[in-house]
Amino acid sequence: MPARAQGKPVLTSRDHERVRTLVLDRPEALNAFNEQLYDELTEALLAAAADPGVAVVLLTGNGRAFCAGTDLKEMHRRSTDPAFVPGKHGFTGLVDALAAFPKPLVVAVNGLAVGIGLTVLGFADLAFAADDARLKCPFTSLGVAPEAASSYLLPRLIGRQNAAWILLSADWVSAREAREMGLVWKTCAPGDLIETAERHCATLAARPVSSLRAVKESMVAPLRADIAAARERENAYFAELMGGPANLEALTAFAEGREPDFTRIPE
């Protein structure tokens, strides 16, 4: 299989006092994940996990969005182009890296958070959001199934009915609603978001890494089997629905700049 051509980096990284800040950097695409960004973030998480000089990772986005989910134009090409070349890690590799990440992961949601921009919060140890952030899971509006063990992690994090609304409706959730649900821990003014997240990261980074790892593993270890089982179920449904009539209608409608019409699609 030919290698995928790589453009300029779409992820930036900076270190300060044992905190590694990873910034999704496709602002022109609202930081939507294409194959390159999946690969770069996966590699960055693997590197941070292995680096003894990193105690905490802070993940945020550049521009007016945290992450607009999966790049739908590329998703359409993947569904329709037999010559499409996937990345090295892809979505599955990123979720593997998130599920296995052994150190505190802090997420700062600036602006829009869609799809993986929301479901990543299921793997976050702390999550902050700007007051003007808006979040949603668009799965039913795309004719597909949940992802990233969100069918398990979201009910556990925010309760069954809150999770059901987010996963079933594909509707927006405000930062205030996200805080009230427990989807994010704290909200603040957009201009204070990074400073607030960095201040909390600094507190964690002052602790011994061995202790941070032990605490996180103690919290996560009992969940691993259920996370894996949820991912297996979700992946099976996603594979069944991806490229199906509802999904193709959603992607075609997106490419044509119109709302999808699912009413004529048979069950």
Describe the structure.
The protein is of the alpha/beta class and 267 residues long. The chain is built from eleven helices and ten strands. The strands form two sheets. The protein has a six-stranded mixed β-sheet, sandwiched between helices. The relative contact order is 0.13. The mean pLDDT is 94.
Characteristics of this structure?
267 residues, 10 strands, four-stranded mixed beta sheet, six-stranded mixed beta sheet, 2-enoyl-CoA Hydratase, Chain A, domain 1, alpha/beta
Average pLDDT across residues? Answer: 94
What is the second-level CATH architecture? Answer: Alpha-Beta Complex
pLDDT < 50 runs, ≥5 residues: none
Helix share bin: 40-55%
Q: Give the SSE order as H and E letters.
A: EEHEEHHEEHEEHHEHEHHHH
Main-sheet strand order equals 1-2-3-5-7-10
Q: Give the number of domains.
A: 1
Q: Give the name of the CATH superfamily.
A: 2-enoyl-CoA Hydratase, Chain A, domain 1
For this structure, the CATH topology is 2-enoyl-CoA Hydratase, Chain A, domain 1
Q: What is the overall number of helices? A: 11
What is the global morphology?
A: globular
Ends distance = 36 Å
Binned strand content: 15-25%
Q: Return the structural class.
A: alpha/beta
The first-level CATH class is given as: Alpha Beta
Number of E-state strands = 10
GO molecular function: delta(3)-delta(2)-enoyl-CoA isomerase activity
Subcellular location: Peroxisome
Keywords: Isomerase, Peroxisome
Protein name: Enoyl-CoA hydratase/isomerase family protein
